[in-house]
Design a protein that fits this description.
Radius of gyration: 24 Å
Shape: elongated
Strand content: 25-35%
Number of strands: 16
Largest sheet: 8 strands, mixed
Structural class: alpha/beta
CATH topology of the largest domain: Aminopeptidase
Number of helices: 10
Length: about 375
């Protein structure tokens, strides 16, 4: 396996690719300029099998090893940007107002392209590598759509691996854990129904705002009193919608938010208890509720065998002590989880240094992390698909 010094020859070139991608951010599935850039680079490496238009603008590129009789593994990078006005003022800042790569997907694409160039040249592995460039990670369920498009079966993929930069972790460090690594994400809209009327005559009404206030407080006890303190669950009410006038008690209130959990059992509990808690509180005041609950990303779950090989690859790339294999699970979510539901695999964090946080208008991917990402990918391939 290789340390990062073996990939310093790629750093300047890959950095230029990254900065080019940073200038042309696109959102969701509408990644036509981004996808064209990625596909052109892949073709320039001599990769013959490139499938474009997967899940609208996604790409699958297949690199065959020196011996093609082995397994096929998937390396995935996300491509979409965020609807944020960039504030970095860097020379390579976004040229598209209101759009920016505020989560480092430009870096993810560039590092995977750098690994692809090296692997397509050396082919020092047995089997095949499927490079997945995925659209619509930021809330668009692009990972699910690519799985639904049949890529796992079409390319006979046996395992999947993902990599994401992490501000606050030092450059050259890696982090992951066994089992649940990132939370499931659910969203809900709770319609609280009462009886509207004149604000001067509340006794003639059933005030849905008062009911909603009690429900909001009641939901907090789902975490503090309804779940094991050693288990993780977050229930956050993030939107309230009610009324249009000062002197009218409205007919209904909408309470919206998110739920984050690390197990399917707790996920089921949250949905069930939000509904029953809201109904019980509303009934006490003479009102009713209607819950609209949507399950978004599942739990990002690292399987043991794949996590072990990922940790081994990371330790070979940098200092062994710079790899934390017991990183606490985080309550953010990631739609790579859909690929992990389809196949065993591992999701890894890569240190981005003391930069601004993800999804912040001042964020920028740290180009010093580039060789570490490339080294990790190449080591992973040559370890899983060893000759």
């Amino acid at each position: 396996m290789h340390s990062i010094e073996a990939f310093n020859y790629l750093k300047d070139e890959v950095t230029q690719w990254r900065r080019r991608l940073h200038r042309i951010p696109e959102l969701g599935y509408d990644l036509y300029e981004t996808a064209a850039f990625v596909a052109e680079k892949l073709r320039s490496f001599g990769i013959d099998h490139i499938e474009e238009g997967v899940a609208k603008t996604g790409i699958v590129a297949l690199i065959e090893g020196s011996d093609t009789t082995g397994a096929t593994i998937c390396l995935r990078a996300d491509m979409d940007a965020l609807p944020i006005v960039e504030q970095t003022k860097k020379p390579w800042a976004s040229t598209k107002y209101g759009k920016m790569h505020g989560c480092g997907h430009d870096g993810h694409m560039a590092m995977l392209l750098g690994a692809a160039k090296h692997l397509a040249t050396t082919r020092n592995f047995k089997g095949r590598v499927a490079l997945i460039f995925q659209p619509a990670e930021e809330g668009g369920l692009g990972g699910l759509r690519m799985v639904q498009d049949g890529i796992m079966d079409r390319y006979n993929i046996s395992s999947v691996f993902g990599l994401h930069n992490e501000p606050g972790m030092s450059v050259g460090s890696y982090g992951t854990c066994y089992g649940p690594f990132m939370a499931a994400l659910d969203e809900f809209d709770l319609i609280v129904k009462g009886k509207g009327g004149h604000a001067a005559e509340p006794h003639r009404c059933i005030d849905p705002i008062v009911i909603a206030a009690h429900i909001l407080l009641g939901l907090q006890s789902l975490v503090s009193r309804g779940t094991d303190p050693l288990e993780s669950m977050v229930v956050s009410v993030t939107k309230l919608g009610a009324g249009e006038a000062y002197n009218i008690i409205p007919e209904h209130v909408t309470v919206s938010g998110t739920v984050r959990t690390l197990s399917s059992e707790l996920r089921d509990f949250a949905q069930r208890q939000i509904d029953s808690t809201a109904q019980g509180i509303a009934a006490a005041f003479g009102g009713t509720t209607e819950l609209r609950y949507r399950r978004q990303d599942p739990v990002t779950f690292n399987t043991t065998a794949q996590a072990e090989v990922a940790i081994k690859a990371a330790r070979a790339a940098g200092e062994p002590t710079a790899v934390n294999d017991k990183l606490p699970p985080v309550m953010g979510s990631e739609d790579f989880a859909y690929m992990l539901e389809a196949r065993p695999g591992c999701y890894m964090f890569l240190g981005n240094g003391s930069t601004a946080a993800l999804h912040n208008p001042a964020y920028d991917f740290n180009d010093d992390a580039v060789p570490y990402g490339i080294a990790y990918w190449v080591n992973l391939v040559e370890t899983v698909l060893s000759n």
